[in-house]
Amino acid sequence: MSAILIGGKEALPSQPYVPQLRRSLVGRQPQLEMITAAWMAGSDQLPLSPLLLGEPGVGKNHLVYELASRTGKKLYIFQGHEDVTAEDLACAVRFRDDGQPGMDYVASPLLTAMESGDICFIDEIAKIRPRALALLVSVLDERRYLDSILLGERVHAKPGFRFIAATNTADLEGNAMPEFLRSRMRPVIRVGFPDRQQIAEMVTNLHPRVGRANDLLDVFWMEWDQRFGTKPDARQCSPRDAIYIFSLASSLADFDALGGPSRLADVSKTLSLNETDQALSVTVEHLKKAFQEMFPADSR
Amino acid sequence: MTIDGSTLWAVPSVHYRAPFAEHVNQLVRRRHPQAIAVELGPQAAAATANWLNELKNERYLPCMLGLVRPNRRLHPQVRETAQRLQQLTQSDLSDLPPELLKATLGYSSLSVLYLSPTDSIIEAVRCALESDVPLYGVDLEETASPRRRDILLQDPTSMQNFSLPEYVERNDAYAEMQRDDVVDARREFAMAARLKTILREHKQVLYVCGLAHWTRMCELLRAAEPQPAPVIEARSQPSMLYRRVVVHPIMAIHHLDTFPAFATDYEQARVHMRAVNEPRHRLNLAEIFQSLVKAAYEDHFGLADESDQLKRSLGDWEARGDFEQLLRNLCTLRHRSIPDLITAMQVAQSVMSEPFCRVFAEKLMTFNWVSPNQDRFQGLPILAPAPSAADQPQRAEFVDRDGNRSPAFFVSDLPDGDSIPISVPIPWEWDSEPPPPPGKRRDGGSSNWIPIDTLMTALSFRAVRVAREQSTHQRVEAFAGSLLGGVDMKATLRSATRGEDRLYVRTTPPRITAANAKSEDVEGFPFVWIFRLAPQKEVGYKLSTDNLTTFKEYVTPGDDLDFDRSRYMVSSVIAVTGDQQAPELSQSDYEVIHNERVGQLCFQPDCSVRKAAEWAVKTNLESNPVLSFANSHALHTFYKHKFQLDLGDSPWHVALVRMAIPFARRAVTIVTPDGYTFPPQVYEEAARRQVELRVVPLSYFPTESLRTISHIYWLPTLGRNKDDEYNLPIYPPHVLRHFREPVDVYHRLIPKEWR
Question: Number of A:B CB contacts under 8 A?
Answer without folding.
Answer: 138
